[in-house]
Amino acid sequence: MHPPTETFWNELPLGEGVTLLVRDANGLVAFNKPAGILSHPNSRADEGRALLTTRYAEEGQHFHWKTEAGEERRLWLLNRLDGATSGVILAASSEALAVAVREQFAKKKIRKVYNALVFGKPSIKCQLWRDLLAVQRKGGQVRSNARAGNIPATTQFQFLQHIQGAFSTSLIRLEPQTGRSHQLRVQCATRHLPIVGDQTYGDFGHNRSFTKSTGLDRLFLHSLETNFNYEFGGKSFAFKATAPLPPEFRKKY
Fold it and tell me: Domain spans of the chain?
């Protein structure tokens, strides 16, 4: 199968604020997803606020649409970010390529790096976080906690910068070694470093004060970088994508 043409990429029905970061010759692509945009629509009503503003087939995990000329188009989604999380998200232009890359996800060969802005200042500069999470799914909602669980969650933590203004916040680096639901948000909250703007696991009083003072109402969690190697068509390829850190992560508030 030949990789798609320039026209294919230029005519993608991208969601509001979504930008293409990098793509390779095989048709593997990384986008920068803004906070508030869904990885994919969960219903027809969601299509206007998703990564691509078009239909999504959950079973095949791909977007699909028709061009003005009536040609069928598809793009396979390779990973998901919470709607409130910004940054790198991956897709593939063919099913065969999607299978090849998903194999790397299954083998835990994908390296991801996140930045988060948290309330407070860590007492330790670098640490491997290990927790046993309990994950519950009910009514379409996912909730995790680090109490009495049995699902291992491991993240490499690094303190980067303390930012002292009206609010005491810190910029941190997180490299998850497992991919559990809401893992980073729960692990930060458990260590009394709630992510700014986290409406589920965060400090609700601090969040209200922060939003009222700054006018910013987002989760300060950003997928900064993704890199990995993959096999396709009998050859080995390296892929790396970096989404610039939004400027609001480094401001003094």
Answer: 6-107, 113-221
pLDDT in tens, 123-132: 999 999 999 9
Tokens of 140: 């379409």
Phi, psi of 104 (to 5 degrees): -70, -35
* H-run or E-run covering 6: helix 6-10
**How many other β-carbons are positioned within 10 Å of the β-carbon of residue 32?**
21
Query: Do the Cβ atoms of 229 and 236 come closer than 8 Å?
Result: yes
Closest Cα partner for 115 from 167, 37, 152, 170?
Answer: 170
Instruction: Give the pair of three-digit tokens for residue 218.
Output: 């987002």
Integer Cα distance of 199 and 193 in angstroms = 14
pLDDT in tens, 36-85: 999 999 889 999 999 999 999 999 999 999 998 889 999 999 999 999 99
What are the tokens at 87?
């940054």
What share of residues in the chain are helix, strand, coil (percent, to 5)? Answer: 20, 40, 40
Q: What is the mean pLDDT of the chain?
A: 94
Q: What is the pLDDT of residue 137?
A: 76
Domain 113-221 CATH assignment equals 3.30.2350.10: yes
| CA dist., res. 25 & res. 176, Å (int) | 28
121 vs 92: CA distance, rounded Å:
39
Burial of 6 (0-12, 13-18, 19+ CB in 10 A): exposed
